[in-house]
Amino acid sequence: MQFCFTAAAERALAYGSDWSSRAGGDELEAPPLLLGLLCEPECRAAVMLAQVAVDRAAVLQRWPGLTQNLPRTAVSRGKPLAPDVELSLRLAEDRLAGLPRPLELATEHILLGLAVADHEMGRWLRERGLDPDRVESEIRKLYGCETRGEGRVEKGGKLGLPEAVDNKTRVVESSAQTSSTAVLRVLDAAANRAREGLRVIEDYVRFVLDDGFLTDLCKQLRHDLTGVVSWMPAEQRLAARETQGDVGTTLSAEGERRRDEPADVLAANFARLQESLRSLEEFGKIGWRVGLGSASSPGDAQGLSESFKQLRYRAYTLHRAVEITRQSIDRLGAARLCVLVDGGRSSEDFERLVKSLIAAGVGMIQLRDKRLSDRELIARARTLRAVTRGTDAVCIVNDRPDIAALAAADGIHVGQDDATVKDARRLVGPASLVGVSTHSIQQARQAVLDGANYIGVGPTFPSGTKTFSQFPGLELLRAVATEIRLPAFAIGGIGPENLANVLDAGATRIAVSGAVTRAEDPAAAARHLAEGLTIAAGQRA
Known about the structure:
The protein is an alpha/beta fold. 55% of the residues lie in helices and 7% in strands. Strands 3-4-5-6-7-8-9-10 form an eight-stranded parallel barrel, surrounded by six helices. A two-stranded parallel sheet has the order 1-2.
């Protein structure tokens, strides 16, 4: 069966085909097609999906077999449609009987078909809150056609307004014109501020932090914001805009005139973004005044407000990730070599070793010991804290946030099976460092979003002190170095013999144990590794 598509729908199909090819599919099935719609963030389908919190991450979580990588360009569509997609498109055409023919299927038509079909994708979308009847209603409004069960009639292409209204309705509409203009001015100004602030933030994470992952998060948020804003009629927003008569254009606070460093720019624009989203959320609740829904049925306005609310929450998460990355880079700037040590044969031996490592230039020392009793472990942790206090070396306790807190250590390191970042931070406090072991690029990304201060990346090679079933190796180091700027320590079997390979993969920090603690002269071994890291850092600078 042949279908006719709009240009935006063709691009969505092309993106979906690309995603399907990456997953090894021979046909374009519903899940990659839905991702293709989300690749067109300003289309109506993407905006409708955003209102029920369906984004790329949600789809990939539900269908994990699809690749995480976002297609960069929409290639020519050549992949045949799978039966579930053909069924969905036929259902869309059937539901939209009465619309002008030939019907050119747009992105919202495709979404309607996916939502109404009795297949896995359709059931999932309905469970997420996407109502096919509402999608159909919105499509019919765009054509000015009667909507099933709502008594609306065709009216010259206007969006679903009743053919006849009583005098009371006319009075209300007339008296609301001034208020509608004011609401539009607020929404327009807040939308502009939010997009401008987000663009500045994106420039910071892209050019100052050079962080690919955070830049992608900014882009996704900006595209989703643009999609939600597009629900407000642009021609009316522009008509209501009055910059020359805006009393606020002549007002300026002293703090707005000066920025001392890039971090000041970042902080100011996160504040601008979040405040603007709050304004959009609040005034979006009365969006029926500007044509989104009606006073008696304000569903569209409520959806608009809820969408801005969800964007605001995402902005908070992004703010934390960017700020923690920025602060952690500063706090751990000198910590390029981390040495993991056990409690030693005695407290005296332990103290002697730690002091020699600090003198050798070790920037981070992590206490990891599974054999000591809690009382002995606390004593060693307090010794480590006492010896590192007043030096540049960072004191970290492994696995045990309770002992890290009791010893007033600088931080805690947890594994994927240990306490979460959230739980660890509740025990050690917001000022402490929290590190996380990661074994995949997905875990590294999640650590950034969870608020970790640094990550361990590996295992890189087989280790003499710890057993692993698999080794993500140098490939994972390259992936992390490419897109994440949160301090990352390569770990697992690293020593002088393979340090060059680790550095060539893009790592700038390493964590070692046996290469130092089992050496004949631990301090000399540590000094050699530290010097190699320093030389590599100088060459890259």
